[in-house]
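Issue 218. Parser rejects a valid record. Input:
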Amino acid sequence: MKEIKTVDDFNFENKTALVRVDFNVPINKLHEITDDTRIRYSIPTIQKIISEKGKIVLISHFGRPKGIPSQTFSLKFLVDYLSKQLKITVNFCENCIGKIPLKKVDELKYGEILLLENLRFYKEEEKENENFAYELSKLGDIYVNDAFGVAHRYHTSITILPKFFSGKKCIGLLMKKEIQYLDQFLLGKGKKPITILLGGAKISSKIEIIENIIDFADYILIGGGMSYPFIKIKGGMVGDSIIEKNKKIEKTLKKIFRKYHNKINIIHLPKDVVIADSFKNESNTKIVPIDSIPNGWMGLDIGPYSIKNFCQIIEKSKTILWNGPVGVFEFENFSLGTRSIAKAIANRTEKGAFSLVGGGDSIASLKMENCENKISYLSTGGGAMLASLKNKMLPGISAIIL
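Output the parser choked on:
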């Protein structure tokens, strides 16, 4: 963290801070926010700048409008919410570049905030466009990146915009926390035993992580769709369970088994699974060994023995990271495994373990059990968290250091 400047390294008095936040929050049909975690975690950064009588220009994306402005993806719905949270009036501008936002920034008083419209209304945002970055740079004196959720993206506001703020760029307090907590795993700083649980449907996004963490993790628990390629490579029958067809995955799995044969007992796979004859909640089910799934059936949750085994490992862990459900938890009949994991991690945290949970599905399952407030830290970026665990510096962080 030493070489990365944070907002604590600057005094914002009489300065305009151009703050890249990630306000891409989930909403319902009435445009009401259903999870405001990302916004709440960015508030300390905003308050720090405001308390020093700096101006703030907030920039963010929302959804995937693909360069086409629309009411559906407008950020205007955030104005009232932010005003209430911050207890000051938040101004809004329907443009991100040009004379209008420049005028509004000029009219802004120190200690006030201006929220700009969705960055992704401009196709240039996702194309690392120098001209778009230059126009945005005119709106601030100091660039602040507090958008961990997109710090792994090669987007203009993340990687190109900071180039125009030589010596006057930094990360916000949300980003600082994310980096510090992830370092507990990446640098093996966490108290042992260290347990990392990886789930979800795709193994391609996480297979490099396994290679990186196997040297310092005490337990690697693998569930969900990620587990079936492991079982198949070991000669087991996985029926119609979801498996990514990728020769690279097969090659990497073989490499892991070959290279880490003396550490392979660190990796724990489910022993039994709940299988179904169709991909729907009301399908016929039964419990079988994970390596004996008949054709026409698919694994949709971990079984009772596996739940017990995973929870026992969690119970003796002192540092825990979780990303990805261990079953199709959105179907009630296949949610027991994921919900049990959520409760086990929350219970262990209450007894003194440090827990870090990331990924929308994992956090959603915590909320199903009303235990999201019992976790040490909820990461605001699933994809960025995974990219960090591959031990690669995120583009958004590199852009601050360079």
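Fixed in the parser; the record now loads. The domain at 188-389 is CATH 3.40.50.1260 (Rossmann fold).
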